[in-house]
């Protein structure tokens, strides 16, 4: 389980950590809190040092089992801080990577305990340059890594079910990381409307883009990092006739063969119904942001943001996180048993 320090202030991270401790207390914790906390390297770099420090101290004080770092050009600075300031045994350091080069750096320079190989299929933020998980994982597993100990490698990106997990284990991953699948749990902070959008989505409905960050104003992500989410509104724009009717127009007036003129202009404007289409067609940022804000307020599927990996088409049920883990475990065992 991973909490995100992301955009939240230290106070709210402290509350989340104390909630985690009280929920897990039944497990007779021996001091260590069995959760990880994720940090965005570039965001730590950007904030005043004391603010970044207080986010790290929050997790160090809570005695968390693991720290997770991603998306930064100076992760070493923050990893050193954690190692030098942890009392007793250093927490495990996870580093998420999008290329073999980043993996080599994380192993040889950052001495990461665990490498998370995040393929291009991943939901949420990731490197736009990442190879498919299949290739990224194998390139890391096959790399010699000189005198450094071989890393423990986890696979992330587009994984939906136990068959996917069994495949990654068979390839040599030590385990997997899944994000999107847990967005469908009641425990996630997604709204019912966002969860319904995930259930309705097909495999081809996700897109990698910076449009969502532009729309919500989180625009400082490093060069080369974008995010995969549902191409909101696509379910309407797939069918121009349906779209036209929705707008209350007279369908008889629409000629679908028109190459120019008012009908095709009208059609073009109707096709620009969602954040990504607006962004791609050069609609002003101000307008995109105001439509996004309003769409998020009204939970308009064409405008709100739903991060999702390519595995979303195989996810069609809302289940408590505990049941998801149990189901994944069972499915994975069944698939592995078929191989033996
Ligand atoms: C809603 C959401 C938020 C995420 N936030 C972070 C984050 O803060 N830091 C990070 O390193 N990765 C983040 N990720 C990426 C995950 O670590 C993981 O690589 C990804 O979810 C795997 O792909 P999947 O969603 O297809 O399972 C996020 C993913 C999602 C879906």
UniProtKB/TrEMBL annotation:
Regions that span the bilayer: none
InterPro entries: Aldolase_TIM, NMO
Keyword terms: Dioxygenase, Flavoprotein, FMN, Oxidoreductase
GO molecular function, one term: nitronate monooxygenase activity
Protein name per Swiss-Prot or TrEMBL: 2-nitropropane dioxygenase
């Amino acid at each position: 389980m991973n909490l995100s320090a992301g955009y939240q202030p230290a106070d709210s991270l402290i509350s989340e950590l104390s909630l985690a401790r009280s929920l897990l207390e039944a497990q007779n914790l021996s001091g260590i809190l069995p959760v990880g906390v994720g940090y965005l390297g570039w965001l730590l770099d950007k904030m005043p040092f004391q603010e970044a420090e207080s986010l790290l101290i929050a997790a160090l004080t809570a005695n968390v089992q693991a720290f997770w770092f991603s998306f930064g050009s100076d992760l070493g600075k923050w990893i050193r801080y954690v190692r030098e300031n942890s009392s007793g045994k250093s927490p495990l350091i996870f580093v998420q990577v999008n290329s073999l080069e980043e993996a080599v750096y994380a192993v040889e320079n950052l001495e990461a305990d665990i490498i998370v190989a995040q393929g291009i299929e991943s939901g949420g933020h990731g490197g736009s340059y990442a190879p498919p998980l299949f290739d990224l994982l194998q390139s890391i597993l096959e790399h010699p890594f000189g005198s450094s100990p071989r890393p423990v490698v986890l696979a992330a990106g587009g994984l939906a079910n136990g068959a996917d997990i069994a495949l990654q284990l068979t390839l040599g991953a030590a385990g997997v990381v899944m994000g999107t699948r847990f967005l469908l749990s009641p425990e996630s902070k997604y709204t019912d409307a966002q969860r319904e959008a995930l259930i309705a989505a097909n495999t081809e409905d996700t897109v990698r883009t910076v449009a969502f960050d532009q729309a919500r104003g989180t625009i400082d992500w490093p060069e080369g990092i974008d995010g995969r989410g549902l191409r909101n509104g696509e379910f309407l724009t797939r069918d121009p006739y349906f779209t036209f009717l929705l707008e209350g127009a007279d369908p008889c007036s629409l000629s679908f063969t028109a190459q120019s003129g008012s009908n095709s202009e009208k059609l073009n404007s109707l096709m620009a119904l969602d954040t990504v289409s607006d962004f791609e067609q050069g609609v002003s940022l101000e307008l995109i942001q105001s439509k996004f804000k309003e769409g998020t307020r009204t939970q308009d599927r064409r405008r709100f943001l739903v991060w999702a990996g390519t595995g979303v088409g195989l996810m069609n049920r809302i289940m408590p996180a505990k049941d998801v883990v149990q189901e994944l475990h069972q499915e994975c065992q069944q698939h592995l048993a078929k191989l033996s």
